[in-house]
Amino acid sequence: MNTMDILSLIKKNLQKNRAEIAETMIDGRLSDFQSYQKNVGIAQGIDLSCSVIDETIKQINIGDE
Known about the structure:
Layout: H1 3-26, H2 33-64
Helix pairs in contact: 1-2
């Protein structure tokens, strides 16, 4: 497994976790507003992490040219 494969797998797992958070929120399984805010923050962190992974992959591709 090379670096690109590892980064892609990490991103896929992050996106899976984000989907699980969204499903929990949609199903109304949050006990209070604080839990909602926490999950929103986690989802935003996952989005940022995926963006960093995408940028890292771009930089690796540029370096390979």
